[in-house]
Specification:
The structure holds three protein chains of three kinds. Helices cover about 40% and strands about 10% of the residues of chain A. Chain A is an alpha/beta fold. In chain A, helix 2 links the parallel strand 3 and strand 4. Chain A starts with 16 loop residues before the first helix and ends with a helix. Chain B has a domain at about 5-140 and about 190-210: 2-enoyl-CoA Hydratase, Chain A, domain 1, CATH 3.90.226. In chain B, the strands form two sheets. In chain B, strands 1-2-3-4-5-7-9 form a seven-stranded mixed sheet, with helices on both faces. Chain B has a two-stranded parallel ribbon with strand order 6-8. The chains are: A alpha/beta, B alpha/beta, C alpha+beta. Chain A: Pfam families: Carboxyl_trans.
């Protein structure tokens, strides 16, 4: 394995959660809360004979982005699939509640960056994980309601599945790379429950067409698309800072309209190229083959959200 | 319990709740003191699809736009989120989140939201419906879960018997009302005789405004989530003290 | 799961002023190491929690080799291992002292 510090252009996908935070924020500004030395670990993994992690796979703290104070939380997708559990969830809930409470005080931040990388709820702690997701959703929405944007950054190995997919869609703005995947039920689970004719999880191209970053940004499930390096995520996080919709009845009415129309226009489609074709995109089959520059050019022609 | 039985027990005075598209319920009901409540629901253990989410969310938004602060009661018998390639392709995560968001929004701007679970609710559907309300009640027939034990066994690669054995010592992963209630998900479980449902509902609507998420405190008190609340508080405390 | 502690004496204490560092991830075939400069000058303490049973003697050999090569006196190493191979363990240990030395 190559040590992280000697990789020249660190990719978001390949990096650890800690490396992503370091690359995302201004140099030497990250201050971790309940870090590894505090040893705040899962009390439940021992029951399953599984080794814990010092941070339970959730790294939280504050730092600066282009000089502005931000709060940040990153899931480590390689530890237990980056799952929401009692400890990892409570760390994020605590951070979001603190951000909301800090509005208008000296410790206020200008936004929250959520580096989600998750298979969903940790099944060994299923009930606590489920509750954590629900509390996170409420805390994200309270934070947005208090005027602080919550920005999701998706491009890790585990994607944003299960409750993670729902949390993602509760954020003010979603930034994604080609490798990013967003979904609720994972392809393997759909295949197990409904059969391979419903969803063949071994068909990688199909999985990416359904859940992957390009499809999500074209359909409107993500708001910004970036190349997969950490610097790309950083630039976009700076750019979208405070340009995002409030959590208000007006915003939700627009969402209702947008999502209802999507069902009306594309509800009978069975694969994404059909959607792109119906949406008037030329060469719908090429969308997954072109390089990032060509895809970004296509996106800027099309305009954002459909 | 059938939806009709539940409606009759909750609103003996009067209700005009009718079946809507995709196995949904919608209408208004009148409490003993003539207070009106809005009622929405899912029947028949129906998996939560984008269509149901849009149907219910649309109704919640109409209620919000009416300018009233009418309480909203959700009667729920759903399943998991619907598991199809088509729904995932269309962004099911956005539809589930949308429903959760409008329910939370309604609560935030003054509609007291109460979920009454009388059937199943699992995984993402549980999060987007029952767990998005301010107060969740369970009645006869309620079976909340994250995932059933056989599926957990498959994912964790543990024999089912081992899981069943472990479930006896901890409420942390097993399905059902007692385990979920222990973690703070369920505020109250109402008795089978149903005679006092109207008073119980009235009491919830009047005693607490639902603005603060108290579920981790409940989980700590009941012993089903012993550390979550303490950790969240430690983070909040540290947040204002970290060097910046 | 198996838990044990290995103690050793290094020739010198580890240079640098960093108080703590963390390297690695508890992924399959990988491990995390938390390094804390909490021990007396030449003392080395390694707390191991590992999912692989029956490899304590292998760990002892790897740690002995590592202490000889790096002389990480004064440092406590706390390890969560998910079945990493000895060469991965050695690499992470070396990476850890490298990070700790450079940490301000």
């Amino acid at each position: 394995m190559i040590p992280e510090e000697i990789i020249h252009q660190p990719s978001w996908y390949e990096s650890s959660a800690r490396a992503r935070i370091v690359g995302l924020l201004d140099t030497d500004t990250f201050a971790e809360i309940l870090g590894p030395a505090d040893r705040v670990m899962s009390p439940h993994l021992d029951l399953f004979d599984l080794p814990p992690a010092f941070d339970d796979g959730m790294i939280i703290g504050r730092g600066k982005l282009a000089g502005r104070a931000v709060a940040v939380a990153a899931q480590e997708g390689q530890f237990m699939g980056g799952t929401f559990a009692e400890v990892s969830g409570a760390k994020l809930v605590g951070l979001l509640r603190a951000v909301t409470a800090a509005v208008g005080t000296a410790s206020a931040v200008t936004s929250v960056l959520l580096l989600l990388d998750t298979g969903g709820v940790r099944l060994q702690e299923a009930n606590a994980g489920e509750m954590a997701v629900s509390e996170i959703i409420r805390a994200v929405l309270d934070t947005r309601r208090a005027g602080v944007p919550v920005i999701a950054l998706i491009g890790g190995r585990a994607g944003a599945f299960g409750g993670g997919g729902i949390v993602t869609a509760c954020c003010s703005h979603v930034v994604i790379s080609e490798q990013g995947r967003i979904s609720v039920t994972g392809p393997e689970v759909i295949e197990t429950n409904q059969g391979a004719e419903e969803f063949d999880s071994r068909d990688r191209a199909l999985v990416w067409r359904i859940t992957g970053g390009r499809s999500r940004v074209l359909l409107g499930g993500a708001d910004s698309y970036v190349k997969g390096d950490i610097a790309g995520f950083r630039e976009m996080a700076i750019r979208v800072h405070n340009t995002v919709p409030a959590f208000s009845p007006e915003t939700m009415m627009m969402e209702q309209d947008r999502l209802k129309k999507r069902l009306e226009f594309y509800g009978d489609c069975t694969d994404t190229p059909e959607i792109w074709s119906r949406a008037g995109l030329s060469d719908p089959d090429k969308i997954y083959e072109i390089d990032d520059d060509a895809f970004l050019a296509l996106l800027s022609q099309k305009g954002s959200r459909s | 319990m059938t939806p009709d039985d539940l409606l009759a027990s909750l609103f003996p005075k009067k209700h005009a709740v009718v079946a809507g598209p995709h196995n949904t319920l919608s209408g208004t009901a009148t409490l003993d003191d003539d207070q009106t409540v809005e009622v929405l629901g899912i029947t028949g253990g129906t998996p939560l699809s984008p269509e149901i989410a849009i149907q219910l969310a649309g109704r919640v938004l109409e209620i919000i736009n009416s300018g009233s602060k009418t309480p909203i009661v959700f009667l729920l018998d759903t399943a998991s989120q619907r598991m199809t390639r088509r729904d995932e392709m269309l962004g099911l995560n956005e539809y589930l989140a949308h429903l959760a968001k409008v329910i939370v929004l309604a609560g935030t701007i003054g509609h007291r939201t109460v979920g009454i679970l009388y059937g199943t609710a699992a995984a993402g559907a549980f999060i987007a419906t029952a767990l998005a309300t301010q107060t969740l009640i369970t009645v006869d027939g309620a079976l909340p879960s994250v995932m059933d034990l056989p599926s957990i066994a498959r994912v964790t690669k543990l024999p089912l018997e081992v899981l069943q054995q472990k479930a006896e010592t901890t409420p942390i992963f097993s399905p059902g009302v007692p385990a979920l209630a222990a973690t703070g998900a369920v505020f109250e479980t109402w008795p089978s005789d149903r005679t006092d449902f109207p008073e119980r509902l009235k009491s919830i609507l009047t005693t607490n405004d639902g603005q603060t998420d108290l579920r981790d405190r409940l989980g700590e008190k009941r012993g089903g989530r012993k550390v979550a609340r303490d950790i969240a508080q430690r983070v909040a405390m540290a947040f204002s003290q970290v060097d910046r | 799961m198996e838990k044990f502690t290995i103690r050793a004496q290094a020739r010198t204490s580890l240079p640098g002023r960093g108080k703590q560092a963390i390297v690695g991830v508890v992924a399959s075939g990988n491990l995390e190491i938390l390094l804390e400069r909490t021990e007396p000058d030449q003392t080395v303490v390694v707390d191991v929690v590992t999912s692989a049973r029956g490899f304590q003697t292998v760990w002892e050999a790897v740690i002995a080799d590592f202490v000889t090569r790096s002389s990480p006196g004064g440092v406590r190493f706390s390890i969560h291992d998910n079945g990493a191979r000895p060469d991965t363990v050695m690499l992470r240990l070396m990476q850890g002292v490298n990070v700790l030395e450079k940490t301000a």
